[in-house]
Design goal:
The protein is an alpha+beta fold. It folds into two domains: 2-112, Thrombin, subunit H (Beta Barrel), CATH 2.40.10; 116-143. It has helices at residues 2-10, 96-109, 117-141, and strands spanning 17-18, 22-27, 30-39, 43-48, 57-63, 68-80, 85-91. A six-stranded antiparallel β-barrel has the order 2-3-4-7-6-5. A hairpin with a 4-residue loop joins strand 6 and strand 7 (85-91). The protein is elongated, with a radius of gyration of 21 Å. The termini are far apart.
Length: 143
């Protein structure tokens, strides 16, 4: 089982971050509470005290300090422990707003180590403008 886990790690597109936050889903007309173990833009691993099935679709809400992130995912793997189940979910497409909330939450828990795409664009524009100013000054003043 460990070899399978290592093989799945190598296929990941998004870095995972440890995060133990509550997650709530509705099943059979009842709200069930779970706990996330780690999370990425592509999915999460959670711990539940009820049975889940591989292939099952789950709508859930990740409850953070100041916001609720609505997600939909499909269970891709399950590991059973004493009275707990660890399930890995792959997210299925959701709204742009929820994806943005998730991205901002991951940026918060990663301590800013994950630089959002917009910051890369801003840095690129800053460097490009510095080069343009350098060439203008060099051309104008140092003929």
């Amino acid at each position: 089982m460990i070899k399978e886990h290592i093989a799945t790690d190598e296929k990941r597109k998004f870095p995972r971050f440890a995060a133990t936050t509550p997650a709530i889903c509705s099943r059979y007309g009842q709200q069930m509470t779970m706990r996330t173990l780690n999370i990425s833009l592509g999915g999460l691993e959670l711990e539940a005290n009820f049975d889940l099935e591989v292939g099952e679709s789950i709508d859930l809400v990740i409850v953070t300090n100041d916001t609720r992130i609505r997600c939909r995912g499909r269970v891709v793997a399950i590991e059973e422990f004493k009275n707990k189940v660890h399930a890995r979910l792959r997210f299925t497409p959701s709204s742009h707003l929820e994806f943005r909330k998730l991205s901002e939450y991951l940026d918060t828990i990663s301590g800013g180590k994950r630089i959002p795409f917009q910051k890369w664009i801003i840095w690129g524009m800053f460097i490009l403008s510095a080069y343009v100013v350098y060439f203008i000054i060099r051309t104008y003043f140092f003929r």
